[in-house]
Amino acid sequence: VASLGSALRCGRLLDQPLTALRRRMEADLMPHLAAARHLLPLLAQAERGGRYILLGSPCALRAWAGHGESSVAAAAIRMLAQVLHEEAKPLGVRVQLLALAHPVCRSEAGSDDCPEWFTALSVGRAAVALLAAAGVPGQAIVDIDKHHYAHPRTSLMAAAHLSPSTHEVFP
């Protein structure tokens, strides 16, 4: 599961130098591609085929005034996930992006202030469910149902056959 990116910065895209967007793409998009290049061949060696999951941002779904850099980078990550999804098929690896329609609360306590937002725990549960599910949806973009993952599911990992690997990857 890959959740990479830099902090939100305020400012209109039109007011920023071109280097600001370039830096954002270098910080948010390119690490996903670099990670995929190294991990997809390793995941292809898995018995059941590997899964590589990226976490999407609500910035990819709508333009957020004052956060243009993030919106552009998040949209690029969403497209990268779709391209990697297609390119990884011959390897037997499933690449998917968990699409978040709302931001994530910084703490469980803050979820009362913004009830429509995700909690980190619900996003984690959705990622584990996608990794553990046998009947995983085949599309590149998977939307998270916030309410479905709001509470623990005891059977979530029951069907998962996870064998710990002794193979480690070093840069």
Major sheet size, sense and barrel closure: 3 strands, parallel
Number of strands: 3
Helix content range: 25-40%
The string of secondary-structure elements, in order, is HHEHEHE
**Can you tell me the overall shape?**
globular
Organism: Xanthomonas campestris pv. translucens
InterPro entries: NAD(P)-bd_dom_sf
GO molecular function, one term: oxidoreductase activity
Family: Belongs to the short-chain dehydrogenases/reductases (SDR) family.
Question: What are the main properties of this structure?
Answer:
171 residues, Rossmann fold, 35% helix, disordered C terminus
Would you give an account of this structure?
- This protein has 171 residues and is mainly alpha-helical.
- The chain has one domain: Rossmann fold, CATH 3.40.50.
- It has helices at 18-28, 30-44, 68-88, 120-132; strands at 51-55, 94-99, 141-143.
- Strands 1-2-3 form a 3-stranded parallel beta sheet, with helices on both faces.
- α3 links the parallel β1 (51-55) and β2.
- α1 (18-28) crosses α3 and α2 runs parallel beside α3.
- It is globular, with a radius of gyration of 17 Å.
- The chain starts with 17 loop residues before the first helix and ends in a 28-residue tail after the last strand.
- Residues 153-171 have low confidence and may be disordered.
